[in-house]
Amino acid sequence: MKLERHGSLGADLSLVGITAIWGFTFPAMQLALRDATPMAFMASRFAMASIALALICRARALRPGSGAIVSGVLLGLCLTAGSALQIFGLLYTTASKSAFITALYIVLVPLFSLALARTRPRIASLAAVLIAGVGLAEITGVRLHGLNVGDMLTVGCAVAFGLHIVVAEIAAPRHDAIALAFWQTLTTAVASAILMLLLEHHPSLPATPWTITALLVTSLLATALAFTVQMWAQKETSGTHTALIFSAEPVFAAAFARLIQQERLGARGFVGGAFILAAILVSELGAAKAFGRR
Hints:
- Helix content is 79%, strand content 1%.
- The protein is built from 13 helices and two strands; from the N terminus they run E-H-H-H-H-H-H-E-H-H-H-H-H-H-H.
- It is globular and about 45 Å long.
């Protein structure tokens, strides 16, 4: 059994950057879904991301080894499940609540990582996961009996995204980052198109300001760029550490939802956000201490 990897400062900052981008997508997608149907939006998002990666990085995207294709397809299936459950959940819950429930994957990743990747988390990481879990419980302010259908769909999304991080932890050190990003986005684009044909009788994607904005941001920044950065960063860091950095996503989402949709987080939200940031700090300090001993 191997010990959890910890990445460089550059990898961590890159992950924080894409976390902020993903935070913006919650209110942006919710506003776009006032006019667009969920699977039409999702299929267009991942198709555009696949085309962008193929055009910009053609040699690396289109000429991978067979192992990269298999890993990319597995990542794409996890991504399809997570994204579909999340986007349908957004129809029935708020953007900030969706973001915080999605972030429950941070308490699942260490378990998945131990079971699938045989990676033993550091004590500091486990402590950080517990602190972040307390923060998420505080910030959502929900109990099982208070969850609506949108919340339950988003819980399923958290499970799928947790699996996605652990599969990436296994695949990223073995394959090219751009190849993995391309094949997972292409898989998700194809799967989303199939789901659109099966689930939506009248797919719709009108060219409204928020639909265009959300589509451009989610496809180019939150997908093509973000998953390439994630695949590169996870060559150097573990799934548990990646999940802890991603736990800041709901904090960014709540801030953007407040600015764009005037959603109020409340006192419990600020307390929970403080717990999440403290969890990241505990993880970083623990990793730095371990690096110093080595």
